[in-house]
């Protein structure tokens, strides 16, 4: 059978299996095993366990559970509430200061926790009622938190960037740095739209709120600064050549647990057990998907599907930006239905040779891919963040939340266009800090 036709069949069967309700990892193993048996015979199944565990035999993978523990430690405390309160006190004089402080809190908390739903829940529980009480439109209040929660998969340290780096054998350090400026760009676009939408609503009074004394501003800082110092310390250790990403993640996880115990009095064994239990569940889920995706990639390569697709794309006489547009549409649709980790692990082995042949930078493409995954987090039918917001603010209809989040989707699309016009926004910082890639 022609490899391109076979690739189409694999795509159809994969979609069908994943929509059947089975887990992503199990679905990938079912599809991989089925096609290997049909086209390579039963003996090909003997390789599946070796490939599965071989994909997990990487020291770099240790950073995933460590960063997840780091995030779970923060999410289990009042860190989100304190971060929100601190930014509100310091940014209250900024026009639209409350929505700006909410987005800033989302950016920092999501960077620390790496979890989009946790960010929405932690910041939204305080931010949404406060914004509504002060007259902000419901759409702005809900949409800004939903969009702000997505920033954790772009702003370092990011688990999805680690997964992309492992899947494509790309420097994780460079990927982290590549997400900094685009992440700040998204925050700026989110803030600009939120302020504009608030002003357009006609309730100008919400742009001027009560002031805080200097004492009130400084008394909240001791609860927030340690977490920010940990993030900066992790990044400094990584880029200063002091430790590997896995080692810095382990130290960061330990320090976050210590801070949760010392500052937030998380003494109870039940609380610590909850952190470890939830972290283990999420880590196993991600690692299971990584192993299954390794088998899936082997199946695609063994049947010459990946090579044939890349070769076929290379023969197309189309502008490379038309190709990139088609890739973005594919990623966008995939992100509507699948979690970011699954999309990256399934698509990266196929797309990497294509974008390389087309002359695109894999580091830059990682940022484009990640922003597409962010869009999926606030877009139906899955749109996990939309349902989290609806859960913490049930009196705001899902339609209002969706309508409020759509302008932020437009902001993400604008960010992708800006990055296409100015790719240096993603590649300059990694090249400056770590030297030009060879």
TrEMBL record:
It is found in: Cell inner membrane. It is a multi-pass membrane protein. Residues 15-424 form the TRAP C4-dicarboxylate transport system permease DctM subunit domain. Keywords: Cell inner membrane, Cell membrane, Membrane, Transmembrane, Transmembrane helix, Transport. The chain crosses the membrane at residues 6-39, 59-79, 175-199, 220-239, 251-276, 283-306, 318-338, 405-429. Its main location: membrane. Part of the tripartite ATP-independent periplasmic (TRAP) transport system. The complex comprises the extracytoplasmic solute receptor protein and the two transmembrane proteins. Belongs to the TRAP transporter large permease family. This is TRAP transporter large permease protein. The lineage of its organism: Bacteria, Pseudomonadati, Pseudomonadota, Alphaproteobacteria, Rhodobacterales.
